[in-house]
Amino acid sequence: MSSHRIRTSAAAITAVVAFPLSLGAFAPQAFADNTASSPSSTPSPFGPGCSSLPHEGKGSAKGMAKERVATAAANNPKLTKLALALKDAGLTTKLNDAKHVTLFAPTNAAFDKISKMKLAGLLKDKAQLKKVLTYHVVDKTITPSELPNGSFKTREGSMLKTTGSGTSFKVNDTAKIVCGDIKTANATVYLVDKVLMPPS
Fold it and tell me: Cα–Cα distance between 67 and 73 in angstroms, integer?
């Protein structure tokens, strides 16, 4: 074999070996670039009550994100009493048609804290029921960063305030946010453990 052929073969072998190595050196950078350019995951809802939500399907955080707020509430096992109250007050369609609102949503357990007599009276008085429920709605998107010292005008017309820090917040110093920052198709939802009553 001539020396020219030996040199050519050696060069070819070197190229074959070097090509995969160059790919290996490039691959981590390419992977890093892809990772960096991928969209960041949406923040998860926070609070001790979030773990009791369905993990998937209707009523889950992902399921609620696909639905309008009143519909999402009706499909959430924690909010069925709220959904019925919204329907009785004639607010279901109005909430579903709203844009970029925040709902402080009383859970079933929150409604259970009201005496049966008082609750029955509230449900029969449509005007008062509407007043109470619209006090839970703010016509803007409230982010978690606004909760530590927040003051917001509700659809009812009165103000409500939020206080707290980290992942522990209260509304009007009485109702705890048990699961916050749940997104729906047209609203942000904060589950609260007490029905909020507007100032008389």
Answer: 9
DSSP state of 46: B
Residue 181 CA to residue 108 CA, distance in Å, equals 18
The domain locations on the chain are: 1-38, 48-192
Which tens digits make up the pLDDT trace of 53-108? 999 998 999 999 999 999 999 999 999 999 999 999 999 999 999 999 999 999 99
Pick the CATH number of 48-192 from 3.30.390.10, 2.30.180.10, 2.130.10.10, 3.90.470.10: 2.30.180.10
3-state secondary structure of 105: strand
CA distances for 51 relative to 63, 65, 165, 191, angstroms: 15, 17, 20, 12
**Residues 57, 59, 64, 67, Cα dihedral to 10°:** 90
Per-position DSSP letters for 2-26, written without gaps between them: -HHHHHHHHHHHHHHHHHHHHHHHH
Please give the torsion angle defined by the CA atoms of residues 191, 192, 193 and 197, in that order, rounded to the nearest 10 degrees. Answer: -140
At 96 the three-state DSSP class reads helix
**The pLDDT value given to residue 21:** 39
Measured at the CA of 104, the angle between CA 101 and CA 105, to 5 degrees, comes to: 115
144-157 pLDDT, tens per residue?
Answer: 999 999 999 999 99
